[in-house]
Specification:
10 helices; 329 residues; two-stranded parallel sheet; 7-stranded parallel β-sheet
């Protein structure tokens, strides 16, 4: 399928803007649903993320709906933030479901964001879509990790329970999307490396799953084009690697000679100071994209060392004014 109109809910963040720009540059009509509309080259419609309103008419006749909406998880998991993380995802998914269900001409495809964090903490084997272990019951797993699993399972359940028989559904279990933009995971890690703090975290044996932002965009295009793919799809590069190797590759790409390691207590103190959680660093996410690979999708950046060098170079080009826009893949 080659879409003529794409709706992106929660599309004012980095990933939504990247996708919107890519579609727009390819002549596809884009409508972004946002709580905080701003001037853009494409149409932006106001929505609150939980109630049907005038934005719902955009769903009717659209070819693809991509739902990225959800509060950022890079925060402390206090009760208020937990409720906002959960409700922002469930409410947005349910209202998208309602809009699709009542549409006279519903979209052919619903791409729903989820997270690779749903899989169990493990280092012994890969988690793929067929044999991957869902987390939450690992011995000794912190309670915060179980919260993340509960959010992910409820998020996906809100999609799977939808009565939308004319719309293909694909759930995107997405690993960390690596991009050079300020505020992105890669930018944060690169800054730590430049400060000499980019060593291994704790034992360094926990696996990091990731995907280059250009491969994320290409994978979305691939899923739109292949009408026979539905259900769970892992969006992650095929070569996850332990934290110690992951950080070494960033140091090499940045030309940093040293990287001081961080003990667990240091990570806990840093997470508290940054109003974040150590789960983002310590949980082993050994996730691989079995379904994409089986269907012949070819990653432009399958290995992290080369991808890290590319991202460092992309940042340098952007800083120098050469370009390297994230919206083209």
């Amino acid at each position: 399928m080659k879409p003529k109109k794409v709706i992106i809910a929660g599309g004012s963040g980095f990933l939504g803007s990247m996708l919107a720009r890519g579609f727009h540059e390819n002549g596809i009509e884009v409508v972004v649903l946002s709580r905080h509309p701003k001037l853009s080259p494409w149409k932006v419609a106001q929505w609150d993320g939980h109630s049907l309103d005038t934005w719902a008419c955009e769903i009717n006749g659209a070819d693809v709906v991509i739902n990225l909406a959800g509060r950022n998880v890079n925060c402390r998991y206090n009760e208020r933030n937990r409720q906002e993380i959960l409700r922002s995802r469930i409410d947005a998914t349910r209202v998208i479901r309602k809009a699709i269900a009542i549409a006279a001409n519903p979209p052919k495809l619903w791409l729903q964001m989820s997270t690779a964090t749903i899989y169990a903490h493990r280092t012994d084997a890969d988690n793929d879509e067929f044999t991957g272990v869902i987390g939450g019951s690992e011995p000794g797993a912190p309670e915060e990790w179980r919260f993340s699993i509960d959010v992910a399972t409820q998020w996906e359940a809100a999609v799977n329970s939808a009565a939308v028989p004319r719309t293909r559904r694909v759930i995107l279990r997405t690993a960390m999307v690596m991009a050079p933009q300020p505020g992105s995971p890669f930018a944060t890690l690169r800054n730590l490396v430049r400060l000499g703090l980019g060593g291994r975290a704790a034992s360094g044996k926990q696996y990091i799953s990731w995907i280059h932002h250009r491969d994320f965009g290409r994978a979305v295009d691939f899923l739109i084009a292949h009408d026979d793919i539905s259900g769970i799809v892992n969006l992650a590069a095929p070569e996850p690697l332990p934290n110690a190797e992951f950080m070494r590759a960033i140091r090499d790409a940045c030309g940093a000679r040293i990287g001081l390691p961080a003990a667990p207590w240091m990570l806990a103190a840093g997470a508290w100071a940054l109003r974040s959680e150590t789960e983002l660093i310590l949980k082993s996410r050994r996730v691989v994209p079995a379904r994409l690979l089986a269907r012949g999708f070819e990653f432009a950046h399958p290995a992290w060392p080369k991808a890290a060098r590319d991202l460092c170079g992309e940042r340098a080009e952007s800083t120098a004014g050469i370009g390297a826009t994230a919206g083209t893949w």
